[in-house]
Design goal:
The structure is a single chain. By secondary structure, this protein is α+β, with helices and mostly antiparallel strands. Helix content is about 35%, strand content about 10%. It has a six-stranded mixed beta sheet. Helix 3 crosses helix 4, helix 8 packs antiparallel against helix 9 and helix 8 crosses helix 10. The chain starts with a helix and ends in a 6-residue tail after the last helix. About 25% of the residues have low confidence.
């Protein structure tokens, strides 16, 4: 599969195929099993010891081969499973209302598989729909995985003609049915970093040169950084306690970001996850009205799993040592008090009832004041190192 084929593949996914000469015939094939003639039962020879078995009046015809998708593996009623090829996927359009296909994301998936030596594996299935009337077929979930397979085939890591890709096909009726299927598929919550087994924000090794280089960035917030790292690109160690000399010259050689001292408890990634989880669970029990089950909740609310993942991804336990959930919860109360003061000053400087703020923001602030809980008003505090180093007396 050459580069021209790949460009054509990605190109037609972003718009409908209008040229009928390029369209693939997807009309239903003729049944490969003909209905049996009506027979009440199979008669065994008189000398046989077998009991005659009842035989159905009619065998339902099954489509064992799809002209585009290939071999039917199983028909479970509400969906069909086919064993298809990358070549067939390249001729299958993506649903026109699907999210934008990002070739760079597909390339990232392909590169990751090659790097890990997993180029001949594909976890999960790619989901398609087929209209019951028009027989139109389209990809509705897994487009980037399909794109990654195309790239792997181009590089010679995957046989484009071999039927070795499992796809599931749901029968739909019209655009509303396809939209409902798309919503049902994407309603599931993604697995977060903190819930992945054996995951660490530092990868496999616990020894790193710089938190800035190794902490994965949030989609909307930057990772934590020391004051020195903000002005000096030289990798430096992040102290576990506040430094008394903020102007100290950074070391010229690579150092560990976290030195293990006899007095400092050493937490494994799993211990960090347990500590964060216990802390956030206690916080939700204390403020049940401020937590929502959906991950897309609006201010001033929080979702327990999003908060767990944010705290873990932001690497807050490497900024300051917290040995017990009570210690971390105490620090969250200090941060909550700081946010309370921040919004109190905001109110004193502005008229929150005026047009300066939206009605939704005013309502959110009123609820935060009612329950004395401000952690859900913004996310900046998660990445503010000064707040994590803030003590009771400050």
């Amino acid at each position: 599969m050459n580069e021209k084929d790949v460009k054509k593949f990605f190109g037609h996914w972003n718009e409908r195929i209008e040229d009928k000469s390029q369209a693939v015939e997807t009309s239903a094939p003729k049944p490969v099993i003909e209905p049996a003639s009506k027979t009440s039962k199979i008669e065994a020879p008189s000398s046989s010891a077998y009991v005659p078995l009842p035989f159905p009046d009619k065998i339902e015809a099954k489509m064992l081969y799809h002209p585009l998708l290939g071999e039917l593996l199983s028909d479970v009623g509400y969906k069909k499973l086919y064993m298809t090829s990358v070549q067939a996927l390249a001729r299958t359009p993506v649903w026109k209302k699907q999210r934008i296909l990002r070739p760079e994301r597909a390339a990232l998936i392909a590169d990751d598989k090659v790097r890990k030596g997993m180029q001949q594996s594909l976890p999960g299935v790619i989901t398609l729909y087929q209209d019951r009337v028009s027989k139109e077929v389209g990809i509705i979930d897994g487009q980037h995985r399909a794109g990654a397979l195309m790239i792997l085939a181009q590089r010679g890591h995957w046989d484009e003609r071999k039927n070795n890709v499992v796809v599931e096909v749901f029968e739909t009726e019209g655009e509303d049915s396809v939209a409902a299927l798309f919503s049902a598929i994407n309603a599931a919550e993604p697995v977060r970093l903190i819930d992945l087994p054996d995951s660490s924000v530092f990868g496999e090794e616990d020894e790193v040169e710089s938190d800035v280089q190794n902490t994965p960035q949030s989609q909307s917030e930057p990772p934590l950084a020391t004051d020195q790292q903000k002005t000096d690109p030289t990798p430096v160690a992040v102290p576990s306690t506040p430094s008394s000399d903020e102007t100290a010259k950074p070391p010229t050689k690579k150092t560990k970001s976290r030195e293990k001292k006899p007095s400092e408890p050493s937490l494994t990634p799993e211990q960090e996850k347990e500590l964060i989880t216990a802390t956030v669970e206690a916080l939700r029990a204390e403020y049940p009205d401020m937590f929502k089950p959906t991950s897309r909740c609006k201010i001033p609310h929080l979702n327990i799993d999003v908060l767990r993942d944010d705290l873990y991804s932001a690497n807050v336990l490497r900024v300051r040592t917290f040995a017990r959930p009570d210690d971390l919860q105490k620090q969250l109360r200090i941060i909550n008090a700081a946010l309370k003061e921040k919004f109190r000053q905001l109110q004193s400087e502005s008229d929150v009832e005026s047009q300066t703020f939206s009605k939704s923001f005013v309502a959110a602030l009123n609820k935060a004041q009612k329950f004395d809980f401000y952690l859900g008003m913004e996310k900046d505090w998660i990445y503010d190192k000064s707040l994590w180093l803030k003590g009771d007396s400050e």
